[in-house]
Amino acid sequence: MTNFFWVALGGAIGAVGRYSIGLWLINLSKLFPFATLIVNITGSFLLALLFAWQLNQDGVNQQLWLLLGVGTLGAFTTFSTFSLDLVLLAQQGEWLKAVIYALLNIVGCIAAVLLALWLKS
Q1: Which residues are annotated as a binding site for Na(+)?
Q2: Ramachandran assignment for 38, one of left (phi > 0), alpha (psi -120 to 50 degrees), beta (any other)
Q3: What residue numbers bound the domain in which 95 lies?
Q4: Mean pLDDT of the chain, nearest integer
Q5: What is the DSSP letter of 57?
Q6: Total number of domains in the chain
Q7: How many degrees, rounded to 5, is the angle at CA 78 between CA 12 and CA 85?
Q8: Is the pLDDT score of 119 beyond 90?
Q9: What is the pLDDT averaged over residues 77-87?
Q10: What is the pLDDT of residue 112?
Q11: pLDDT above 90 for 3
């Protein structure tokens, strides 16, 4: 039961963080779904840093991983929102925006992971 507590606590933190960024970028996101893009790239970077850091420890701290990796960053990163944004852009006939958005998310997140792993090495 304790594991669920750490995931739930982290999930609440991540969800509030995601919501806060959405509010902060609300005007900019009317033009393009920047909030989701920034959250996905930042979350990918932070998750990779946490993962790499855990690998360099004597042992994985399960509670810390559940709190930060599974809970906080799991709720913070919004790939499901990315998918919905992408489909909505396509349904609105915004095909160029949809393609650019998909490429920026995919390339940006992979680049963020590579950067985080490079920084940690």
Answers
A1: 74, 77
A2: alpha
A3: 4-120
A4: 93
A5: S
A6: 1
A7: 135
A8: yes
A9: 89
A10: 97
A11: yes
| CA–CA separation, 91 and 64 (whole Å) | 40
The token pair that represents 110 in the structure block: 């992979």
DSSP string, 9-33: HHHHHHHHHHHHHHHHTTTGGGTS-
Q: Give the integer Cα–Cα distance in Å for 47 and 95.
A: 30
pTM of the model: 0.80
Q: Which of 76, 77, 53, 79 is nearest to 65 (CA)?
A: 53
H or E element in which residue 101 lies: helix 95-120
Q: Which residues sit in the known binding site? A: 74, 77
In which residue are the tokens 């004597």 written?
58
pLDDT exceeds 90 at position 110:
yes
